[in-house]
Specification:
Layout: E1 3-9, H1 11-15, H2 22-33, E2 36-43, H3 47-58, E3 63-67, H4 78-85, E4 90-92, H5 94-106, E5 120-122, E6 126-128, E7 137-140, E8 143-146, H6 150-160, E9 170-176, H7 181-193, E10 198-203, E11 214-220, H8 223-236, E12 241-244
Parallel strand pairs: 1-2, 1-3, 3-8
Antiparallel strand pairs: 4-5, 6-7, 7-8, 9-11, 9-12, 10-11
Helix pairs in contact: 3-4, 7-8
Length: 245
């Protein structure tokens, strides 16, 4: 199963000045691709904190995505942080520099040295092109650097999303009328019998219209294992089951 992590970068997220919409978008996209999101870290615009978070999750994930901190201003330090995570210097990429110069020339805009910072990448990084991309996605080993602006974040991820596709998840639901206590032991038994199936239990404060108080989810990559776990659990808690889907 492909495992991924997300590092969200920005003082504005931690202070609440900006509402993070990239995280729920990426969660939904990765889920639809069959990729497990195992960790989300939110760090400030500090090179050392970014480097620590990226190095930590990159060592135990197949894919790492970053959001934010890419631009021409003093607080855009994600590239430096990613470079530090892999102990490499930051270099100016000639392809990105040429794209920037061409863009500013075509728009008849002054090109400041600060703007050229957007051509700086960790040494050894690669550029991922896409038919709908004006600017490539910078990838450093298994880390994909994405901007924080939601529209651009989405556009860039969608341009490269298919490279992450994995076996889809199989999800089944069981609705039960009792509280969690009476079924907790049975959940533990079934979870131990089917370690490849993730079992979740989500209680409601008030019963739903059909009387259920707890939603149980069983999911995994093997349809036969999920089906067997559902059958086993339903037999054990049959007196409490409202319905299954």
């Amino acid at each position: 199963m492909a495992r991924s992590a997300l590092v969200v970068i920005g003082n504005e997220i931690l202070s609440g000045k900006i509402v993070d919409t990239n995280t729920p978008f990426l969660i939904a996209e990765l889920r639809s691709l069959g990729v497990q999101l195992c960790e989300i870290a939110v760090v400030p615009d500090e090179v050392a904190r970014i480097a620590e978070a990226v190095a930590r999750v990159a060592s135990r994930s197949d894919h790492v995505f970053t959001s934010g901190g890419v631009g021409p201003t003093h607080d855009d330090v994600t590239m430096e942080g990613v470079a530090a995570a892999f102990a490499v210097p930051v270099i100016r990429h000639p392809r990105l520099e040429a794209l920037l110069r061409g863009h500013y020339e075509a728009q008849k805009l002054p090109l400041e040295e600060a703007n050229l910072r957007m051509a700086d990448v960790p040494e050894g990084a690669t550029l991922l092109e896409g038919p709908d991309l004006r600017w490539p996605v910078v990838a450093m080993r298994n880390v994909y650097v994405l901007p924080g602006i939601p529209e651009i974040f989405r556009r860039k991820f969608l341009a490269i999303r298919e490279r992450f596709r994995d076996t889809p998840f199989v999800l089944r639901r069981i609705y039960v009328r009792c509280e969690e206590g009476p079924i907790a032991k049975d959940l533990s038994v079934v979870a131990a019998r089917f370690p490849q199936v993730a079992i979740g239990s989500y209680p409601r404060m008030q019963p739903d219209e059909d009387g259920h108080r707890v939603l149980l989810t069983l999911e995994g990559k093997e349809e036969s294992a999920v089906a067997a776990a559902v059958d086993d659990l339903v037999q054990r808690i049959a007196n409490h089951v409202s319905r299954t889907t």
